[in-house]
Amino acid sequence: MSARVLVGVKRVIDYAVKIRVKPDRTGVVTDGVKHSMNPFCEIAVEEAVKLKEKKLVKEVVAVSCGPQQVQETIRTALAMGADRGIHVEVSGKDYETLGPLQVSKIFAALAKKEQADLIILGKQAIDDDCNQTGQMTAALLDWPQGTFASEVTLEADKLKVVREIDGGLETIKINLPAVVTADLRLNTPRYATLPNIMKAKKKKITNVKPADLGVDVSSRLEVLKVEKLKEAGRI
Amino acid sequence: MSNPLRGEVIRLYKNLLYLGREYPKGTAYFRERLKGAFMKNKDVTDPEKIKQLVDRGEFVIKELEALYFLRKYRAMKKRYYEPEH
Fold this sequence. Notes:
Chain A is α/β, with parallel strands linked by helices and 235 residues long. In chain A, 26% of the residues lie in helices and 28% in strands. In chain A, strand 4 (59-66), helix 2 and strand 5 form a beta-alpha-beta unit.
């Protein structure tokens, strides 16, 4: 199978860190705070690597958008088994306003450029909880989507996806190329141990700018304020 | 010192140290315990015994990976899913 899989990975504040809102209420404190790969992105990488191990796909490419630091996240994906990485350089003000719309435009452009057959993303990021990038990417490419996937099976040139929905589980069959977003129960991600991180240093990460892909990353949204909930869980 | 196994022991120590960065009680706590555990056995010379200790270290690596996964899984499940799930 000559299929190529693009996996999006996002660098977010580590899930176990206690989030603090900045005193000026423009956002949360990120300086000096532990960051790691979004847990749902880990599940996405694991699924892609599993497909490669079953010899159903040929190459797994890990993609991340952001400043220099996201290379750590790409390295983790490489340590988990991705073949190579693409770092889309976005920094400063552009990075602060980077959201699902811009990222999905970038992924759509990359999917065409790299001739990807499958894009796997985490269902949502634990920092913004948008749950939009996968859906928007599929719409921009006019590809079918299998979101909230808890099981993915490749059957010839079609994808059988079991989706976690409110009423239970929905099984759909979609054509390739397609976009899949990973839900919690899709798989158990492997840990990127030190020996694997060392081996991953030999794998290549290419740098690319959004402009090279013809993507405008300007945002139409403006964050007015960020506040802590007065009482958690009460509306 | 059993020379061929020395490399294995050092590799095990480095791998455990790397894993310890995510330890819930803190990296410093983990590092102290790790160093203590290794130092306690520093005078062992029997290659059989060393092999056994290294295997025990590999087992601890697997336990830590499982711990980290479960912690993360439970946190995600609690945050994103209804209690009945």
